[in-house]
Every structure is written in structure tokens, then in C-alpha cells.
Specification:
CATH architecture of the largest domain: 3-Layer(aba) Sandwich
Number of strands: 8
Bound molecules: nicotinamide-adenine-dinucleotide
Oligomer: single chain
Radius of gyration: 21 Å
């Protein structure tokens, strides 16, 4: 029977299992570590229960969970798979190794997609047979609550494979976007990195505190970004649209860009970040705060779903 093979049952692999099962697909989860596999189904159940409780799934937990199985055999996991979603640790050697195994064992028609956060597919698929079915499908954590998937082909990825992956992600209820060509960090982490680098530079140079730079995003920029992107934001922020906006503020943005320099992340900066964060959130309270973050994300996902109906 055709199914989706999820390779690596850590944080992201487990979340993908919930996404694909919620979307109606049969899922087989594989992990090299038997302990991760033992825990996986119970953790997927917890995620599904949260989604059901918040109106993000219309079926029962048991119905959706029945589509998820685990296997300790990579051969068995891949047998009959229409799509493989790889989620092993973020190291190029680890990606290279697992893609070699996937190529040996999977049917040549099976799409091999990596969840890598920023490593280009060409760095670990160049030497493979049937490399035209390999690509990146990068989720944002947790994919069960945040729908974006970046589809990033290597130069040799077949256009039909890109199209099939996009269709599968849409069918699963995600929001796929395409990069026309690969670039390290893709779009998500390049944009996130640009903001993070500037936030750290402002803190390092003493212009703003850690607490206030976070406030700039959560109380200033973030509320709009929940439902529109940076280009739509500027289009709506000047009477004449994007051109008008850039005529008014373009010179300022250019001056800022020209003043930006590449930074290292010095120990002094990390000490400062850690110490300011400790005052705001002691380590002992981090788990509770992470649960709070996930509840908040769930409520926002439910709101977005309700508004898109
Ligand atoms: N955590 C995030 O926020 C996030 C977001 C988007 C993408 N990603 C990407 O997803 C991938 C997985 O990240 P994660 O956070 O789930 O990591 P993780 O450490 O939680 O899970 C990795 C899993 O892979 C398993 N594993 C290791 N080698 C394996 C092998 N050869 N075969 C099968 N299983 C193997 C490990 O046992 C572990 O369970 C990475 O490429 C990461 O960059 C992570």
C-alpha cells in the first residue's frame, strides 16, 4: 500500500507524522534509535489530541493515529512509499549517508525530500543515482501548527518532482512555497537570520536591551506579520503603494544596509544575552514557557483556520 515514509522520529519527524496522518495519508515512521521509536506514537498521540481539542482536526484522535505506524526496518519503511520525508540531524555527512541508503532502497519513482533547515540538496545528493527525485521540503517548527513548507530543488531536481511535492504538501494541509533555485538558508532562515543579526548588533552595541528588542517584534512588527508579509506591509503603508513607500523610506533603508557589518557572535555578547534572559526567564521556568508558546501557537493556528473558512 502507498504511504509516506518519515525517516527520523525526533521533534520534526514526529510532527510531520501528525501532519501527514491528519491530511489522510498512511505514515510509517523509522528511526535509527529504538527508544525514539518507542516514544514516537505516544508523542504523536499527544500532538493529535491537542489539535483535536483546539478544533484543528475534525476526526477523532484514534482515527488519525490509526494511520501512523512505526518500523525498525528501513527497507520495510520504504517499501511502497510514494514520498520520503527525511529528518535526521542537521549535519551534511548525516544527510549524505542517509540519502545514500534511501537511494539504494527506495523505488526510483519515490520522491526523497529532506527537512534540512538550510543545507542545500546539492551538497548531499550530487553523486546519487536518480538524484533528479531529491529536493528539500523545509518545514517550520512545529509543522503541525505552522503550515509553511519551503520547496527547494537542487539544480538537477526534476520539475515534475517539485510539482508532486508541492501538491502533496497542499493535500496534507500545508502551505508550500517554491524557491526557483537553491541558496543556503533558503528564504525562511535567511529572513530570520537578517532580523536576528540586526537584533544582536543593536544589543551588542548597547542601543537596546534584550527585553526591548524582543518587544519591538512582538508588540511592533509581529502583529502584522501574523497575517501579511513584508512586501504587502509596505504596499499598504503608503498611499501610493510600494513605489511611493520606497521613495519615502528607501534612502533610509539603503543607509542602514550600507552601515551593516558582518559580526561574529562573541562570548561577551553571549554572556550578555544569557544573563539578561536569565533575569527575564530563569532556566527552571523554560519548559513551562515552551508549553505556553505551543498553546499560544495552537490558538493562533485555530484563529487562522477559522478566518480562512
Ligand atoms: N527543530 C527545528 O526547529 C527544525 C525546524 C525545521 C527543520 N528542522 C530540521 O529537521 C531535521 C531534524 O531535526 P530535529 O529537530 O527533529 O532533530 P532531533 O534531534 O529531534 O531528531 C533527529 C532524529 O534522527 C534520528 N536519527 C539519527 N540518525 C539517523 C539515521 N541515520 N536514520 C534514522 N534516524 C536517525 C535520531 O535518533 C533522532 O530521533 C534537521 O535537519 C533539522 O535542521 C528542524
Amino acid at each position: 500500500m502507498s504511504h509516506i515514509a518519515v525517516i527520523g522520529a525526533g521533534l520534526i519527524g514526529r510532527s510531520w507524522a501528525s501532519v501527514f496522518a491528519r491530511g489522510g495519508y498512511e505514515v510509517v515512521l523509522f528511526d535509527a534509535n529504538p527508544e525514539a521509536l518507542t516514544e514516537a506514537r505516544a508523542l504523536v498521540r499527544e500532538t493529535l489530541a491537542d489539535l483535536v481539542d483546539n478544533g484543528l482536526i475534525d476526526e477523532t484522535v484514534d482515527t488519525v493515529l490509526a494511520r501512523v505506524s512505526v518500523s525498525d526496518s528501513l527497507e520495510q519503511t520504504l517499501d511502497g512509499a510514494i514520498h520520503v520525508q527525511e529528518n535526521v540531524p542537521e549535519r551534511v555527512e548525516a544527510k549524505r549517508e542517509i540519502f545514500e541508503r534511501l537511494t539504494e532502497l527506495a523505488d526510483p519513482e519515490t520522491v526523497l525530500a529532506s527537512s534540512t533547515s538550510g543545507i542545500t540538496a546539492s551538497s548531499f545528493t550530487e553523486h546519487l543515482a536518480h538524484r533528479e527525485r531529491c529536493l528539500v521540503a523545509h518545514p517550520v517548527n512545529p509543522p503541525a501548527l505552522i503550515p509553511l513548507v519551503e520547496i527547494v530543488p537542487a539544480p538537477w531536481t526534476d520539475a515534475a518532482v517539485v510539482e508532486r511535492t508541492r501538491a502533496l504538501m497542499s493535500q496534507a494541509g500545508q502551505t508550500p512555497i517554491n524557491l526557483n533555485a537553491e541558496i543556503p538558508g533558503f528564504a525562511v532562515n535567511r529572513l530570520q537570520g537578517a532580523l536576528l543579526n540586526e537584533a544582536l548588533a543593536l544589543v551588542e552595541d548597547g542601543y537596546i536591551s534584550v527585553e526591548d528588542v524582543d518587544r519591538v517584534v512582538k508588540d511592533g512588527l509581529g502583529p502584522r506579520w501574523f497575517f501579511m508579509g513584508p512586501i504587502e506591509t509596505i504596499d499598504l503603508n503608503a498611499p501610493g503603494g510600494v513605489r511611493d513607500y520606497m521613495q519615502r523610506l528607501g534612502p533610509m533603508y539603503r543607509e542602514i544596509a550600507e552601515s551593516q557589518t558582518v559580526r561574529g557572535y562573541s562570548d561577551d555578547l553571549l554572556d550578555q544575552l544569557e544573563s539578561e534572559r536569565q533575569k527575564i526567564l530563569p532556566v527552571a521556568e523554560r519548559d513551562e514557557r515552551m508549553a505556553w508558546r505551543d498553546r499560544y501557537l495552537t490558538e493562533l493556528a485555530a484563529l487562522k483556520r477559522q478566518r480562512s473558512r
